[in-house]
Amino acid sequence: MSIGISSLSKWSGLPLAIATLTILPAAPRIERAWTYETNAHPPNRRAAQIAAFEATPVLHGNLLYVITPFNELIALDPATGVERWRYDPKVDGNRNYSEATARGVAAAGDRIVFGTIDARLIALEARTGKRIWETPIGGNAADGNFQVTSAPVPFRNAVIIGSAIGDNGRAAMDKGTVRAFDIRTGKPLWTWEATPAGNTGAANAWAPMSVDAARGMVFVPTGSASPDFYGGLRPGDNRHANSVVALDAATGKLLWSFQVVHHDLWDYDVASRPELIDIGGKPAVAVLTKVGHYFALDRLTGKPLLAVEERPVPKSTVEGEVASPTQPFPVSGVFTGQKFVPREGWCDEQFRKLRYDGVFTPPSLEGSLLFPGNVGGANWGSGAYDATGGLLFVAANRLATAVRLIPRAAYDSARHGETGERWGQEYAAQSGAPFGMARRTFIGPDGRPCNQEPWGALAAIDVATGKLRWEAPMMPSLGGPLAVDGLVFFGGTLFETKLRAYSAMDGRKVWETDLPFSANSVPGTYKWKGKRYVVVCAGGHGKVDGAKLGGTVLAYTIE
After folding, report:
1. Where would I find the beta strands (DSSP E) of 250-306?
2. Measuring CA to CA, how many Å separate 386 from each of 13, 409, 462?
3. CA 20 to 30 Å from 358, out of 94, 96, 125, 393?
4. Does the residue 220 lie in any domain?
């Protein structure tokens, strides 16, 4: 998902420089400890248009590790933010990448392991930054559509990794293979395929994964099969796409799979990390979706612990397309709105020109409105679990997407080409399919989303019941929350430069501060010499037109 609007400055009120600290009633004592500038500038204009500093810093041993959008790995002193070493894998900045981001690293023993946007897996000596080994992941990395953007996960002597595959360029994209490598040597150990042989691909694990080390299980969130918005070449449910899949972490053997969307036509990837939770003493997995659904699954079997029912959904009118007649819904309810209500005036007039039959309205030739759209609901920022309170916190978007399928001959003759994912108008060829695609986030001439506010919320879900405990309205976001010491930290809103803390108990905002750039990331936390630190990466987002870009890491102490 990408963004692109220059007019948002009219309504976001962005403070673009570090200003005063705002302390609200009953606030904890939170003070800035240090600031570090990565000075990791995009190599060219094209690269700047897609770069996003989305990393979560990781403490391992006595160093704090931060990775930049173009995969420079930096080790910092956790108390002062002073740089100790830096490693540059020298990715090709001129390649036509789908994304330019890195969300984290894996730390295990004496090494740090990370993936790159040009599809390499690299292991460094944790203390010095010296390279130990490097191996290509696989796939067709040359055109920039096969990448690694989320952190690998370690398990014993293995490191397990997925891939980010570009959306909608063609029907037969690379397959979403999950791979394990020996963390000592970089040699391949096992693979697992999400899609069968045929005229489709993707269903890839681009979002963060989770590991239950005690039970030897890795939990994989998968995306949609390619292409996103036409499924006539991939009939059926597309099993294992749009799913949470449990694999044996030692062998890659499939243990169970739970599908959250059948035969996806909406780009409704499972974009969030499967969260390991506990319900009534039973180990469970929490699944958060772009649709706004929360599913609680038995960790060992994948069976729902809260009731799920298949409900009828609208049919497709597109030739060659057979939409799934039903989709799974949690009986407990949703964590974000699913009914689109337009703002008056232009938005209402344009809305009436689109097909809209509620949630899961299929794409059409005349144009369909998808709500929630492909941004979510929940996105890659994932949830934050508070085991003490039994709550799962999630940043939930409420944004609509207008999608139109364009017959092949008409698309090709118009020479739309590929514009890449933008908040404005986007075109994608879906080569090999009978239709190209046009989509846009449904916004008005004033640059604001066409649905009624709020356009996002920070929500607290009771994991045992699936019900909302509280929600705090906010702007659309891509980053995620951090829960620590009875607080929920969040700075991921797209059009603000703020870091905020909320009470985990009731959602009251208790603290906020200005940042130099928007923080499209998930904050990290660590303890160092008796002090609790919260650290956040703020660098703007290249796909937000007019956004100020940088690379600042800021650490705060909590007392």
Report:
1. 254-259, 275-279, 282-288, 294-298
2. 32, 53, 10
3. 393
4. no
pTM passes above 0.90: yes
Number of domains observed in the structure of the chain: 1
Determine the Cα angle at 151 with ends 396 and 171, to 5°: 75
**Amino acid symbol at 14:** L
Tell me, what's the pLDDT at 62?
97
d(CA 4, CA 424): 6
Q: Report the candidate in 392, 415, 399 with the shortest Cα–Cα distance to residue 483.
A: 392
User: Nearest-CA neighbor of 49 among 549, 543, 546?
Assistant: 543
At 185 the three-state DSSP class reads coil
Q: Is residue 165 part of a domain?
A: no
Distances (CA, A) of 38 to 58, 65, 553: 15, 12, 8
DSSP string of 20-31? -EEE-TT---EE
Q: Is 45 exposed, middle or buried (0-12, 13-18, 19+ CB in 10 A)?
A: exposed
The two three-digit tokens of residue 213, written as one number: 């080390």
Residue 143 structure tokens:
């055109």
Cross-strand pairs, 376: 373
DSSP 451-495: BPSPSEEEEEEETTT--EEEEEEE--BSS--EEETTEEEE--BTT
Distances (CA, A) of 306 to 260, 284, 285, 340, 464: 14, 11, 11, 26, 8
Give per-residue pLDDT as tens, 108-136: 999 999 999 999 999 999 999 999 999 99
Sheet holding 531-538, edge to edge: 30-37, 552-558, 531-538, 524-528
- Asked if the structure places residue 55 within a domain, the reply is yes
**C-alpha span between 250 and 183 (Å, rounded):** 13
Q: Across 360-451, where does the E strand assignment appear?
A: 368-370, 384-386, 391-397, 401-407, 426-428, 435-441
Q: What is the pLDDT of residues 192-234, one digit of tens each?
A: 998 876 657 889 999 999 999 999 999 999 999 999 999 999 9
Domain that holds residue 534: 9-73+89-95+232-558
| Token pair in block for residue 101 | 């981001």
* Residue 278, in any domain of the structure: yes
Length of the chain measured in residues? 559
Asked whether the beta carbons of 522 and 459 are under 8 A apart, the reply is no
Backbone φ, ψ for residue 378 (5° rounding): -80, 145
Intervals of the chain under pLDDT 70: 1-27, 197-199, 417-424
DSSP bridge partners of 221: 244
Per the DSSP assignment, residues forming a β-bridge with 401 are 370, 441
* Beta-bridge mates of residue 258: 244
